[in-house]
């Protein structure tokens, strides 16, 4: 399997270069320029570096930094900051994320855990009221749900370790975009509409995102002067403005005393985030997870995210199956079952390693994967919820203990992927949790606060079984974020990708990787392929193109059960091509389509 994969990738690279048109960013706007509409294209091929994100203005911000000599890290931070303007319901300095970086000089992969943390006063009863778990919706739009933001610390840590530009420099495109505005599209309006009720609970949020008391019109210009001033303050004072300064004090005041409209009747429960929590926060530099698959090295983020371990375990389970020769039915069957098994183990074993004994190495061992893979049969379906195995003591086809259901995670994160002319690569997923986060805007600051703490289990699924994802003081809630970089045998990049989507991130990344590496789809088509998502549940979610297809009936004949999910994930990626060329790819349709750009379409 190893040599054919490498050979096929080379063929795909050549064909992609032939059929794709390079998309490059327009020149940087002048300080007094009016907002312009930047066209989206889902694939671009060229030289000098590449950026792929869900938004054209954000991708253009990254390209601007690359053009001016910045590297992939500089461009990734610039792109992320711009997404905080144009994708404020998915990302921003009020949230967190995970950053994976490939250093071309040393041919090594490094990661940053920038996950939000619970207050130092939190305990396992954080979301209990009168001894019972809060309703999820009651917890989300409250100060209780807000974790210590990790995104600003992630940006500064990445720039300090591997960047070549100052924070103030790479924030300039985003600050300009916030001041002059961007053009509202259907996605931005629909996301605002879906949050309109709870946005109206908070006057500062309503004033910003419902200008004049109405939904923003498609084609109108949306400006955020408060965020522009916030970015200027960060450029001037550094991220210490958040972790030790007045900006941080404003965040704390907002969490402890949510500025709710008294007439709304909404009980916006206060949180306990403090200036002490902000001062204590650190973005963690840590080793990546690594899995060998088809002779390639697959690198991702280690716990506190479950992404790297769960994608890695599923790939190891699939290693012994020739997916390139399997029928579409058998391919999806094995993909679904591997996902089911990996999620069963995730629920039992993965949490914040600062608090939990997470068997990361054993979860990623081929020996353990083989002991779980033998559960899969070609003509039958495993029952969910499936019980976990024991990675420390693998037993052939063994399961033990009680199954842990997958907790809900908000789906509206965002992902960006960047490569530069030196061959450095960044795969970065950032989030404020669900669409619109907590719905609480910091007054006068122009950004929403996260609801990341709702990723904790509110209570143990089974009191008799230890839950590694209960809240704790300073603890990071488990995530499914899975930014991934794949290297060849010479430790050179093959592809890098990631996706938003809550717990569906894991299945989206796994399916995109196998569609690209095993099924030999061009990257943009692997991203566009209709998706399935199985997370140790009784039913597998299918997008409409699969749900309405003949494949559904063939899989149901084996024993699968399905439910419809209109849209799963919104991936982006970059692929290294021969002779210094890069291919950037994004969604064709999901989330309104993504934006792929390169610095130079031609050499």
UniProtKB/TrEMBL annotation:
Description of how the protein assembles with itself and partners: This enzyme consists of two polypeptide chains, which are synthesized in precursor form from a single polypeptide.
Record-level Gene Ontology MF annotations: glutathione hydrolase activity; leukotriene C4 gamma-glutamyl transferase activity
Superkingdom: Bacteria
EC number: 2.3.2.2, 3.4.19.13
Signal peptide: 1-25
Name of the protein in question: Glutathione hydrolase proenzyme
Cross-referenced PANTHER family: GLUTATHIONE HYDROLASE (PTHR43199), GLUTATHIONE HYDROLASE PROENZYME (PTHR43199:SF1)
Amino acids binding L-glutamate: 115, 455, 479-480, 502
Active site residues of this protein: 413 (nucleophile)
One record GO biological process: glutathione biosynthetic process
InterPro entries recorded: GGT_bact, GGT_lsub, GGT_peptidase, GGT_ssub_C, Ntn_hydrolases_N
Annotated keywords: Acyltransferase, Glutathione biosynthesis, Hydrolase, Signal, Transferase, Zymogen
Pathway in which the depicted protein is active: Sulfur metabolism; glutathione metabolism
PTM comment: Cleaved by autocatalysis into a large and a small subunit.
Catalytically driven reaction(s): an N-terminal (5-L-glutamyl)-[peptide] + an alpha-amino acid = 5-L-glutamyl amino acid + an N-terminal L-alpha-aminoacyl-[peptide]; glutathione + H2O = L-cysteinylglycine + L-glutamate; an S-substituted glutathione + H2O = an S-substituted L-cysteinylglycine + L-glutamate
Keyword Acyltransferase: yes
Species per Swiss-Prot/TrEMBL record: Streptomyces naganishii JCM 4654
Lineage, uppermost ranks: Bacteria, Bacillati, Actinomycetota, Actinomycetes, Kitasatosporales
Family: Belongs to the gamma-glutamyltransferase family.
